[in-house]
Amino acid sequence: MSGYDAIVDRYRGVTGEAPEGLWYAPGRVNLIGEHTDYNDGFVLPFALERKAVVAAGRRVDGRLRLLSLELDEDVDLALSDLAPGQEGWSAYLAGVVWALREAGHDVGGATLVLTSDVPLGAGLSSSAAIECAVVAAYCDLYGLDIAPIDRAKLARVAENAYVGAPTGLLDQAASTLCQAEAGLFLDCRSLETEVVPLPMAEQGYEMLVLDTKTPHSHVDGEYGTRRATCEEAARLLGVPALRDVTDLDAALARLDDETMRRRVRHVVTEDERVLRALEVGRSGDLAGLAPLLTASHASMRDDYEITVPTVDLAVETALSAGALGARMTGGGFGGCIIALTHAGEADGIGRAIARSFAEAGYATPEWFTAVPAQGAGRLA
């Protein structure tokens, strides 16, 4: 349990005994495929080394006690009182227990002590990391034999129905299913997956992840509005979802609303970029990812209109400072960018962006080099 002594000690402090184990789930970077998941399309994320970790143990009193190490908060709930609409960080943990019980799993209470180094509001899926760590813990604590993709679905139910964020399956699938040194291609309709090798270090590349320090939230209206627009466009075009549009020009000609046309164009072309990225991964030449990343950002900026000035400046600066390709990652309206760079150049590009931000009067960004990591599991 080295490295997580603080949550073990906190658990001992509130229960008088050691936890039954430690479970984790990582945050994720979406390499490409933004706002395609809820359109039955394709995504290609990879998991981060940064993760949420819970120290957990069962209770027999029908209660759920939730503690956050970083926030120094303690929430005590009766299982019978769990209901959608709960607010705050604890909803992401309680929602998983609610979702398990709603699905018919005979699970009881627990004490869960949470710590996480996934940045909040940065588009790196801090919420899914928490949810998937709790799913992993509960499956082991209560002997539940739930397939990995179904674990991701349960975590999504917690986010959608309990927390109230209308996200697709991308985040939870990535946090649960990803493998080290690889991305995860996911068909969001069939739920078929393919492991996509990403040997960045071997090929002389790095992936910069830079947090613009512009917080975003999936619960706000912009995300839901775009999802509703896509659903209405699919209805008008007579297709189950926008992933079924096979002739983009013909589809756009049938739509009168210019905003709707832009939204459709982004989703359809983004799906095409994900499929091309999959072929790049299969071919083993990761340089081919660079133009796809940059084109994806332009589409999110101009057609889906989900970028903000800080994010656009970060991408522009990354490219001018030598990045091979760059894009916003995550739901939009803030958060992080990613940039594919030559090995040894990521940090310098991060510093160049920090200088641009200082000149523009923006907050100082934070950045790190991402290494594709393993999905959710047990630490100890």
UniProtKB/TrEMBL annotation:
Q: In which pathway does it act?
A: Carbohydrate metabolism; galactose metabolism
Residues at which ATP binds: 68, 121-127
The positions flagged as active site in the entry are 171
Q: Give a yes or no for keyword Transmembrane in this entry.
A: no
Q: What class of enzyme is it?
A: transferase
Keywords tagged on the record: ATP-binding, Carbohydrate metabolism, Cytoplasm, Galactose metabolism, Kinase, Magnesium, Metal-binding, Nucleotide-binding, Transferase
Which residues are involved in binding substrate? Answer: 34-37, 223
A Pfam family name for this chain?
GalKase_gal_bdg
- Listed binding positions for Mg(2+) are 127, 159
Q: Where in the cell is it found?
A: Cytoplasm
Identify the EC number(s).
2.7.1.6
Indicate the segments forming the Galactokinase N-terminal domain, all copies: 11-57
Q: Which InterPro entries match?
A: Galactokinase, Galactokinase_bac, Galactokinase_CS, GalKase_N, GHMP_kinase_C_dom, GHMP_kinase_C_sf, GHMP_kinase_N_dom, GHMP_knse_ATP-bd_CS
Provide the leader sequence positions.
none
The site annotation (Transition state stabilizer) covers 28
Start and end residues of each GHMP kinase N-terminal domain: 92-177
MF-aspect GO terms: galactokinase activity
Catalytic activity field: alpha-D-galactose + ATP = alpha-D-galactose 1-phosphate + ADP + H(+)
Task: Tell me the protein family, please.
Answer: Belongs to the GHMP kinase family. GalK subfamily.
The free-text function statement in the UniProt record for this protein reads: Catalyzes the transfer of the gamma-phosphate of ATP to D-galactose to form alpha-D-galactose-1-phosphate (Gal-1-P).
HAMAP family, from UniProt?
A: Galactokinase
Which protein is depicted? Galactokinase
Provide the species name. Answer: Tessaracoccus lacteus
Supply the source organism's classification: Bacteria, Bacillati, Actinomycetota, Actinomycetes, Propionibacteriales
Gene that produces this protein: galK
